[in-house]
């Protein structure tokens, strides 16, 4: 009897051990809409290309001053344009202000779903942002696109809510739309060439989110999220320290 109980106890311990190992091995599952944000904070993201270098710098300066961590997704063509015209690397500049930069393909190809895995991977190379997270243009994704991202060493990061700013909405309407779609852990889609990308719009979004009991992601201060804002890494942490 004692031997049987010992065997049963051993089996139970092994089973518990296997369950624990499985949880540790897989951890929290990755959500393509939320990306590497495992917090309740809201992430404001901006795709494509800023209108001017001045407008881009104003947003970076404001975000750092207010400890806001934005996610910027410029295309490779955009990066090349600003390198040629101003001698400035927008991705590197944004990181120096503690902001997060992800890939958005080289030229914003309309639909990558028709491409092969290898062709998708080529769309994610330099002069696009070389990193470990990326957003497919228009959020269009299938198994081939996912394969290309995996081949390029990236995870797709879409969004949980969009503002529809590209339809030409006023700043007030973009702010309202951003707040409306916000929820804990949300990723909100906007664009750098439209009316949500500016210090005043970001300020108003943040204030209205606070009225809903929501906070935005903070600028990068190291993996421990302590101390002063520092340059964010080219490859984002698996879990953003928002």
TrEMBL record:
InterPro entries: Glyco_hydro/deAcase_b/a-brl, NODB_dom, Polysacc_deacetylase_ArnD. This is Polysaccharide deacetylase family protein. Residues 1-27 form the signal peptide. Keywords: Signal. Residues 40-156 form the NodB homology domain. It holds the Pfam family Polysacc_deac_1.
